[in-house]
Design brief:
This protein has about 100 residues and is α+β, with helices and mostly antiparallel strands. The chain contains three helices and eight strands, in the order βααββββαβββ. It has helices at about 5-10, 20-25, 55-60; strands at about 5, 30, 35, 45, 50, 75, 80-85, 95. The strands form three sheets. It has a three-stranded antiparallel β-sheet with strand order 3-2-5. α1 (about 5-10) packs across α2 (about 20-25). The mean pLDDT is about 80.
């Protein structure tokens, strides 16, 4: 079994992104098998347990990002929404936000 970079393993396990993992490691918020890890590029075995300091966990729950895709039939200009096509109908409507 090979050792893997700690930040990569944290990202693969869904704990956080690689960039966030590097920040947590620099701040000393990451523990592997109960030992604090503060060195970037540290490698561990995938079977070792990873825990985060409660400050890191509380910071994660405060930030939520939601990404939405704009539908292809929606056009927005100057605060007005124009629906170009809706389902199988070919008509246009304008609404003010």
């Amino acid at each position: 079994m090979e050792k893997i970079r700690l930040s990569k393993l944290m990202a693969e396990q869904g704990i956080c992104s690689r960039r966030e993992a590097d920040q947590y490691i620099e701040r000393g918020w990451v523990f592997v098998d109960g030992k604090q890890i503060a060195e970037l590029g540290s490698k561990i075995f995938p079977t070792q347990s990873i825990t985060l300091h409660k400050l890191a966990v509380s910071q994660q729950t405060q930030l939520v990002t939601i990404l939405l895709n704009k539908p292809s039939w929606l056009r927005i200009r100057a605060g007005r929404i124009r629906v170009l096509a809706c389902n199988s109908f070919n008509y246009a409507r304008t609404a003010v936000l």
